Amino acid sequence: MVGCAVIQFAAQHYGSRRGGTVPAHLAAGKRLLCTAAASPQLAGKQLASVASRMQVREKYLRAQRNAREAWMPALGLQFERARRADSLSLATVNLARRFWHFSTRPSSCEKHHIRHRTANGGWEHHIIHCLECTQTQLYLLFKEQYPGVRVGRTLFCSLKPWYVRPKTELQLITCCCSACTNAWLLVKAVRHMQQV
């Protein structure tokens, strides 16, 4: 009897997911229940057949959805996914990302250029931005400047741009006084002379 209940639940669940085709799937479930009472082995085969058809249908619908998302931007059409009611607006996301960008310091070293793979397979180059405080401190500063914006700390941290990095120990002990800079330039010149 447990197997029959499972079959009936599967028929109801799949029918409600398909939308508007509940009676046909309930009828199929009833036929499976009658077969299960007469021959459990035959019911098992039919259940496997229904399950495999459900999987094929789900695979087909997923492929259709992916194809639609692929060709719509190529035609210049905007594909809008369904959004949750409590999701952040695009303006809030852009505000948080701009805050991250302008609240971090760009690295002064010419070697600190990094790249990031974009969605279309290309590369985006950017200079590293150093985070000089903790992410929580930056979040509290954001809440202080924009008290009306409702965004949690975890979501705020997830909006951090890919080029923002915490400072390393070497960057923390770097000195920019004229004596250290002249010594560094002298070492660089000697290395260049050795290569020539």
Explain what this protein looks like in three dimensions.
It is a single chain. The protein contains 8 helices and 5 strands, in the order ααααββββααβαα. The strands form 2 sheets. The chain has a 3-stranded mixed sheet with strand order 1-4-5, with helices on one face. Helix 1 packs antiparallel against helix 2. It has helices at residues 2-18, 22-38, 40-74, 90-103, 135-145, 153-158, 169-172, 178-195; strands at residues 105-106, 113-117, 123-127, 129-131, 164-166. It folds into 2 domains: 2-74; 90-191, no CATH class. The longest helix has 35 residues, at 40-74. By secondary structure, the protein is mainly alpha-helical.
Number of helices: 8
Q: Could you say which structural class the secondary elements and strand pairing correspond to?
A: mainly alpha
Strand order of the largest sheet: 1-4-5
Flag low-confidence runs: 18-22
What portion of residues belong to β-strands? 5-15%
Please provide a brief summary of the model.
The chain is mainly alpha-helical and 196 residues long.
List keywords for this structure.
196 residues; mainly alpha; 3-stranded mixed sheet; two-stranded antiparallel ribbon; 62% helix
Helices and strands, with pairings:
Layout: H1 2-18, H2 22-38, H3 40-74, H4 90-103, E1 105-106, E2 113-117, E3 123-127, E4 129-131, H5 135-145, H6 153-158, E5 164-166, H7 169-172, H8 178-195
Parallel strand pairs: 4-5
Antiparallel strand pairs: 1-4, 2-3
Helix pairs in contact: 1-2, 2-3
